[in-house]
C-alpha cells in the first residue's frame, strides 16, 4: 500500500511517498509561502525518486491544519483533485498532531505550538501512552499568555515543539519552565504524515475527498477584513 503525504499547512512544503517499509522518497523546502508553485513539482519529484506512478498510489494523507490559510487550501485542493481522479480516499491529519509525533518518546507533556500570526498561536497538548500518542487537550487558538495559563494549570514537565514555540521562546521561558524541541522539528513533516497515516490506511480508515475540511480554528483574514469593512455605521450589522 502506497501513501502520498502532502504537507502545506505551514511555511514549509513537504511531500513524501511511503509504505510498510517507511518513507521511500521525500521533498521539503521553505520558500516564502510559494506553495502553489512548489507543490506539483514536489509531487513529481518524489514519484520519480521512488520510481512510482501516481496511479499506483493507494491513499493520500494531507495536513488539514491549523496553519497558513492559503497553504492549507493549496494542499487540500491538490489532495482532493488527485484523490477524485484516482478514485481513492484521503486521510486527514492535524498539523499539531504531526508536530508532536517526532517527540512522542518522552514522559513529559508535549505542547505543539504553531505561529498563528497577529500575536496568537495554535496549540494542543499530548501525552505518550501505552496505546500511543494521545491528545489531552483539543486544539485551541490563543495568545501566549493564554498558552502559559494552560501550561500552568497542568503544572507538568513540558517539551514545546513548533515554529510558534520558537518565535515566542523568550516569552514562554519567562512565563513557564519548559524544554524546547530541536529547531529542525519546527514544522510538520510529510514523513510523519505518511508514518501516522499508514496504520489508518491498513484499516481503510479514510475519508471521501468531498468530505475533507480544513481545521481553521480562526476566521480567515480575508473574511475578517471583509466583515470589518462591512460592519459598523453604514455597513451590515
From TrEMBL:
Pfam families per the UniProt record, alphabetical: TsaD
Stretches assigned to the Gcp-like domain: 33-154
GO cellular component, one term: cytosol
NCBIfam families, per database record: T6A_YeaZ (TIGR03725)
GO biological process, one term: tRNA threonylcarbamoyladenosine modification
Stated name of the protein: Unannotated protein
InterPro entries, per the entry: ATPase_NBD, Gcp-like_dom, T6A_TsaB
Species the sequence originates in: freshwater metagenome
